[in-house]
User: What shape does this take?
Amino acid sequence: MKIYSYWSSVTIPVYDPMIGQEGMTLTEFKKIGDNWEGKVIVRGENWRAQASEAIDLNTRIWVHGITGLTLLVKTTSLDPQQSEHEA
Assistant: This one.
């Protein structure tokens, strides 16, 4: 993840503790522009989320990134071993 400063064009890589967290969809994701958008719950908090694919209601998701106050989510874990155990 990268943070952009308002005062500089320098990009600073930052680790965010939300990345890699598991959550659940609260709504079915709907196509809006180039992305799919919906609501998720992660660590007991409701978030807006975007995905590159349609995701159904009550589907397990993982946070892969953050842009502003929107989580970027996928149905696969960042940890390959965790994904293998689910298969």
